[in-house]
Amino acid sequence: LEGALPQRNAEQIVPLFCSAPGYVAGPVEFRGYGISSSAHGWDDWDAESRAGEVEPREGFIAWIVSGAPKARSEDQDFEAGSGLYQKVMTAKHSGAIAVVIAEHPDSAHGGLQPFANGHRAEAGIPALLLRRELAVQLWPMYPQAVRAMDAAWDQNGRACEYSRSGAPNLELQSDVEREMGVGTNVLGILRGQGGGPTTIVGAHYDHLGHGDIGSRSAQHRGQIHNGADDNASGTAVLLEMARLLSDSNPLGGDVLIAFWSGEEMGLLGSEYWANHPSVSLSLLNACLNLDMVGRAGDGSLQVMGAGSAREFERWMEPAGAFAGLDLSVQLSGSGIGGSDHMSFLRREIPALHLFSGLHSDYHAPSDDSDGFEPLGAARVTEFALDLLQRMQRAGDLAFVEPPAGAERRAGMEDISVSFGSVPNYAFGGPGLLLDGTRPDGPARKAGLLRGDVLLEFGGIAIGDIHDFVYALSLHHPGQLVEVLLQRSDERLSLWVTLEARSAN
Q1: Residue 218 to residue 200: CA distance in whole angstroms
Q2: What is the pLDDT of residues 203-226, one digit of tens each?
Q3: Measuring CA to CA, which of 141, 171, 377, 503 is 20 to 30 A from 383?
């Protein structure tokens, strides 16, 4: 922030995880908590402008208070709109060119969230976090404005008509630099006797490094996260499978052994390979994915995606009994955070995900070798080899769309509606490229196709996946929404009826 102020350090002001770089200057508009919730009688924005019904203002910097109004009853929950990213995206789609989010003047100091910790979303505009001391120096009336707003809510249950002026003009510079890195998949192929299908067996070998992104809590960041279960365990089982297969007679078809990179940052390695395959996807009959299989010492194992081929479900009981495992079978392919099998389900290739369960060491430095259960991993190896042999004997496996919830990635866990699309997360925009649509889903019913580029959703411009997630969050099941899309060299407008997202 420019002005006649002493130089600030990282304890006073930091760029938000989703901030874009750039210089911005303009008038400030105070927008309370930056929340719009008609159900609770609180609206810091003009909802009509976000829905495209009136022209939004442009060129202002939004000043927002962190947190949310105090709940007045047990069923009153502002949590869905109080997240930092949601505040910034709401401001952006209400015409703001930048956002500053200041600590509540009466809140306890919790420390500003370091840049990028645990988050990968991008807003496309500069966004800064301010400590309250700096906020008061920039705008001396800031505490009074917030306290008047809170007092009106406490007294009569509605937001007061607080002043949207009085805040200073600001110049701000966000020096955010997002660097590109190189990840490497490691693949090998075990040749079959010929005439059989190609089956891919994979595990991701990346983890969190020092936990700057992805660690479960701030106190763990900066410590080495070894990831013994997530996913050295899957890597170890895959290596053992490859060793045993190499020492035995070849199967009928080829087996592609794949160690994926970039899974923790969004299935980057498996998605890249699926878009640039070294073996034609048409030759693959199935994918077997091993992610977090190191805690099966009690004989329990979860299998996800068992509905993606008709044969899978009936294999579970005999294969589980052979390996001495008690299976929990999920027909859907969704799981904790998703995993690399999703890259294949999106392309209508049957896939199974083996998973020994979540635990308190997940994404923490305590996920170390002392928690690895080798006898359980040996059982998983037997089970995985049995499944692989069954996949090979079955030959061609027809894909069946398994029961599934709506889109699972890019921060969509709190979305209540399903659009039924399969986004391409690697597409650079503008717009959102669809890799497909789900059978019987809203998008398929409305006529959207693989290869369509979504440009607008309910009047909101879609620059990338983050805009799409935000647009979905503003709608409810049963709502009729107009979408604008690009199909080859033609622009089309279609109407889609949104459906409730499945809990699975």
Answers
A1: 37
A2: 999 998 988 777 776 567 778 999
A3: 503
